[in-house]
Amino acid sequence: MPSVFVSARKRRPNVHLPVVVGLAIAAAGMGLVAVPYAAQVEHPSAAGVFEPGEEFPGGTATTRRSRDHVNAFSHFSHGIGFAGESRFKLGNAIFRKEWVSSPASTKASDGLGPLYNARGCQNCHLKDGRGHPPAANWPDDDAISMFLRLSVPPSTQEHHRLLAERRVNVIPEPTYGSQLQDIAIKGHAGEGRMKITYQDVEVTLGDGAKVTLRKPDYEITDLGYGPMSADVMISPRIAPPMIGLGLLEAIPESAIRANADPDDRNGDGISGRVQEVWSIEDQQVRIGRFGWKAGTPTVAQQTAEAFAGDMSLSTSMIPNPSGDCTEAQSVCRDAPNGNSPGPDDPEVSDQLFDLVVFYSQNLAVPARPDASKPQVLAGKAKFHELGCAACHIPSFTTGEVSGQPHLSRQRIWPYTDLLLHDMGEGLADNRPEGLASGREWRTPPLWGIGATAAVSNHTFFLHDGRARNLEEAILWHGGEAQASRDAYAALAKADREALLAFLNSL
Prior knowledge:
alpha+beta, two-stranded antiparallel ribbon, 14 strands, globular
């Protein structure tokens, strides 16, 4: 495994805050059942009541700038200080830059590819917001902010050992690696193209209203490097929004573990599980927090994996200059790279890498100006009544973050437990990742979700963007969330509108 450089290790938050005993909110028909047990939520949230601090979901780090603007997700943490603001702006410049292939005269910007999905971080996370599936008229529209993960079942003792020790989350497809890279530098071929077709699925709500969902089907065409394994497993992923990552990283591990209930000991039908993955920084197993299946433990490792997988750029943490190119792609592996002047110098220098990580940790969560409106509070009551808060836990208190006091000891409102949950067959990708099964997904944070249209100019939700609005996203919930989904579908129109108003206020 690659060595850890010191600056990445120093960023890791200390997590030693006590966990508070709370309540588990469970759906029981249309009622509310409060089941006491240890530390379900650090701060029990009052259903239907405005609580002081709710309007600032990122604590004092919440940005006070308008959330109804295309740049609502691109502001720095409040309280960051002048030096922090300078680092943030430099990180933003690196995040927005487009890399070029080697050899090039711009040594600080070369090394792209040979195979890749995007030329820069901003290409996937436009305005630091949410990605989207390609439009129906693709290839006129691109798939830059969405790609396919690839893997195969373990087939050797070494595969099983690596998975058991959490050293890897998946076994890459032998020829195409762990991610389909559809773009290539000049002189090379992309790996293939993602093709999506949709089937309409009509759902009738309790009052007779009808909603049409779209069920996607995926295939890979125009393979550039020969056949793909017959047992390949694929998983579509859109780029998630970037806000609040440093705050999520600062939630104590003890608080996350306290909410896990794998055996459903409180009988509410919710059995969240902790994801455990290998930390390159710590060289040991840690809790997974980031990614659709919580496959990465820290912002730094998530950043390094994105550089490697999306752009095929090396870092000190993941020093492979050929990125995801496999041994079967010898032409790709033999191509010039940007590790210069020596083979041990990464294409993304430690200085640039640290700036991007700091930037990613400090994209601020916008404030909630409508948090106390009557319809929003009525929707909040329904959110709890239907059991949504059992997974989308409203609030936590962050731990101590070395060198970043503005992220430390903050009561935050991310509406997630960062745990894995079985979401049913409808959302299953049937591709295990780490401890996550093919039906399990990490509870995504909901903060800022109502600003999606303003920032990203769309309202596509879920891991593959199949849901075209929040109501469709709710109606795709299954598995552990089936009871809550069915309770939503049974609501009167006014109650559904109130719940959606609450979500759009987050």
